Amino acid sequence: MAARLNEKLEIYWVKTENYPWWPAQLVFSEKEAEANEKEGSGKDGCTAESNIRVRLLSIDKEVTVSNPALILPFKNHVFELKDVELSLRDSFCRALDFANNIINHQTNPQKNGIIQSKKRDDYISWDEYFMGLACLSAMRSKDPNTQVGACIVNAYNQIVGIGYNGFPRGCSDDVLPWSREGDNELDTKYMYVCHAEMNAILNINTANARGCKMYVSLFPCNNCCKMIIQSGIVEVIYLRDKYYDSNMSVASRRMFDMAGVKYTVYSGKRSDILIRLCENDSHWIVCS
Question: Where is the CMP/dCMP-type deaminase domain (predicted)?
């Protein structure tokens, strides 16, 4: 019997035995379509029948779902890319793009032959953007134990400095030690490493950092705190503070409080931002 996609092009999240939650469309046979038109569909447009056929987007595969609870409205739910097997991620991303294109076309109807455009509402916030850049910068660090990144922005949300922890220019990453402990203090990294905050301040591309904010992936130590205060930075947004009870963190908070520098933990809504880089394509897939 002939089958067709539902005419409304409604998109759902569907979970099957062999695939994680996946963008899909309901598929009806002509007989099922006529029955649905007479009896009406179930909640959220899904039929209440025990067996529901769907077509998985991108891979163009039809499957049968026996449990209606495994079909959810697309707009009301978000699933993380990390739950998708690596071998399926490219197909999943294409399915996600296809689903969003269908939804955008539905929400931006044509008028006089011209599609009425509407801005995206799933773009990342300024805080997510700058903290994401700080974390991306941290990935440049050669430190095998702790990778930290920092990003400085001015009042116009313009990036004026960025940095990560590492050795000074001209000092070989392959010669100086990366050890955290040693019989001789000269055999540890602490005698040589420049912290991310220091590098970001020294790398600024403007006259000074007065009135700026710093996004950093780790709460600043007492030495970086001094540089932050002296540079005129007025606010620090940090991702984590794993040395909260250490003397250096206590000293940093004490100096920040005295100098009037605001410090707050990052509070972005997204827990992950994934950048997918392909040979001929590069785009963001954001997971909430």
Answer: 125-263
The whole-number pLDDT of residue 30 equals: 46
Backbone angles phi, psi at 284, to 5 degrees: -90, 135
CA distance 107 to 104: 5
Residues in the chain: 288
- pLDDT tens per residue, range 168-212: 999 999 999 999 999 999 999 999 999 999 999 999 999 999 999
Helix axes of 222-231 and 247-259: crossing angle, nearest 10 degrees: 20
Q: Is 39 a catalytic residue?
A: no
Nearest to 73 by CA among 103, 51, 36: 103
What is the residue-wise DSSP string for 75-121?
TT----GGGS-GGGHHHHHHHHHHHHHHHHHHHS-EETTEE-----S
For the chain, the average pLDDT equals: 82
Residue corresponding to tokens 């950092």: 209
Measured CA to CA, the distance from residue 136 to residue 173 in angstroms comes to 20
Which residue in 7, 197, 235, 279 is the catalytic one? Answer: 197
Q: Which residues make Cβ contacts (< 8 Å) with residue 11, sequence separation at least 6? A: 23, 24, 25, 57, 74, 99, 102, 103
Distance CA 246, CA 244 (A): 6
> Which residues are CB-contacts of 182 (< 8 A; sequence separation ≥ 6)?
188
Structural domains of the chain sorted by starting position, each given as residue range(s) with its CATH number in brackets = 9-29+52-69 (no CATH), 126-265 (3.40.140.10)
133-161 tens-digit pLDDT: 999 999 999 999 999 999 999 999 999 99
The amino acid present at 235, given as its one-letter code, is: E
